[in-house]
Write a structure and sequence with these properties.
binds magnesium ion; 13 helices; single chain; VC0802-like; eight-stranded mixed β-sheet; binds adenosine-5'-triphosphate; six-stranded mixed β-sheet; 14 strands
Length: 414
């Protein structure tokens, strides 16, 4: 069967309330943007679905296209879509649908042991009901192929949708990424290291409709240039899931060296991470981000015990989101592979968190002790010199300048 459209279904959840039109426009925008790299398409709004059609379609004369790998990869990035159905859209006449059923019998039943026709009427003004349509089209296919019908788990489902002006017939159901449309949930700032976790954490936020920017703490010259290049590559990959992304690279080697010189080695990871959060909060205030996102995971490494995460989080009044907190590593790896960041993340270049840290760092830091150590440093000066030295780059399209919304960082709680 040929394809001349892809029907897009979405969860009804985000259509509740008065924001239906807005969510739909975001979803439509995201699909158009993602597909722009895979061919020439336009997106029409139907009653309860969206329909992707070729840009060559004139009126109701739908142009055929092939659903190739480029299109499939693009669809996997369309957050908010629950499923895609490549289909053949035809006039809403039973004789025309029977003709398509005959074509399916001829060209799509090879190796198919059982089948069913499954009709949904999205509008009820069609003279035949769903059962009758199933019976008529199923009858055509059975006549020609003698393939048995099976209602539960057939090899092939011929899905027929009766729309207001057309019928759409499809043989394939492609699972969408789900979540919420890109750009529908506000902005967040991802702390992006070169590891496996943080790109996945960023993806999880994007999947829930947040637009993210990224901040990376760079300990060169103690870390090799490849470690920085790796982060840039990861940022450019993540940027492909939304309109574009900003990456702020903060020189952090000096801060780390200063802390190393006067603070107990056991405490360094906690101190580094508190400094990172303070710097991130400054950047977040500039980009308009409402939260900082990390790849933290309970118990994974010393800085990620509940005790340490509490003390680290108290360095800023800004909300810190840790979407991978409860994930097992293998689940994170599965997502990293799916979104394409895994191979880059496992390249063996050192990251700054382990710099100068002894083999047995503190796992149960106490806020008072940490604050006492910090008293011997000019924390605000260290933060502002690091943040002022930030380099900034963009991937894809970014609408606002880096400092579009300068605002003071929220005051720390401690
Ligand atoms: P990842 O795999 O993301 O590197 P990890 O398991 O190695 O995580 P840590 O090194 O403790 O864990 O870092 C925890 C989180 O802190 C990271 O997921 C990331 O969000 C943030 N982080 C750590 N190092 C950096 C860095 N150099 N720049 C930006 N963020 C960082
Ligand atoms: Mg790391």
């Amino acid at each position: 069967m040929k394809t001349n459209a892809i029907l897009v279904t979405f969860s009804e959840v985000f259509l509740k309330g008065g924001r239906r039109g807005w969510f739909l426009s975001k979803l439509k925008e995201g699909i158009e943007r993602q597909l722009s790299g895979a061919g020439r398409f336009k997106v029409r709004e139907l009653h309860s679905m969206l329909m992707v059609i070729s840009a060559d379609t004139r009126g109701n004369d739908f142009a055929d296209f092939e659903v190739d790998k480029g299109i499939r990869d693009a669809l996997a990035r369309c957050f908010g879509a629950v499923a895609f159905h490549p289909c053949l859209v035809v006039p809403r006449e039973i004789s025309r649908m029977e003709q398509i059923a005959a074509e399916i019998a001829e060209s799509d039943m090879n190796g198919v042991g059982t089948f069913k026709v499954d009709t949904t009427r999205t509008v009820k003004d069609f003279p035949l009901d769903s059962m009758e349509i199933n019976r008529r089209l199923g009858g055509v296919i059975w006549e020609k192929t003698k393939t048995p019908v099976r209602m539960k788990d057939p090899d092939l489902t011929v899905a027929v949708r009766i729309l207001s002006n057309f019928a759409a017939i499809s043989l394939e159901h492609i699972r969408g990424p789900g979540g919420l449309p890109s750009g529908s949930s506000g902005r967040a700032l991802l702390m992006l290291s070169g590891g496996i976790d943080s790109p996945v954490a960023g993806y999880q936020l994007m999947r829930r409709g947040c637009e993210i920017d990224a901040v990376h703490f760079d300990a060169s010259p103690w870390t090799p240039p490849e470690s920085r290049e790796k982060v840039e590559k990861l940022a450019s990959m993540l940027a492909g899931y939304q309109r574009g992304m900003r990456l702020f690279v903060i020189p952090f080697g000096d801060v780390q060296a200063q802390l190393r010189d006067s603070a107990p080695g056991r405490m360094l990871v906690v101190l580094y991470r508190r400094m990172m959060l303070r710097c991130a909060a400054e950047i977040a205030a500039r980009t308009g981000a409402l939260a900082i996102v990390t790849g933290d995971n309970i118990g994974q490494v010393a800085s990620q015990t509940l005790e340490n995460m509490t003390v680290i989080g108290q360095a800023t009044g800004m909300q810190v989101l840790r979407p991978l907190l409860t994930y097992d590593k293998m689940d994170v790896v599965d997502i990293a592979r799916k979104i394409g960041t895994y191979e880059t993340s496992i390249l063996p270049f050192d990251d700054c968190c382990s710099l100068f840290v002894p083999p047995h760092p503190e796992t149960a830091a106490e806020l008072e002790r940490v604050q006492k150590i910090e008293e011997s440093f000019d924390i605000p000066a260290l933060v502002s010199s690091a943040v002022n030295g930030a380099e900034y780059m963009t991937f894809g399209q970014v609408s606002e300048p880096a400092d579009a919304r300068p605002a003071p960082a929220p005051s720390p709680v401690d």
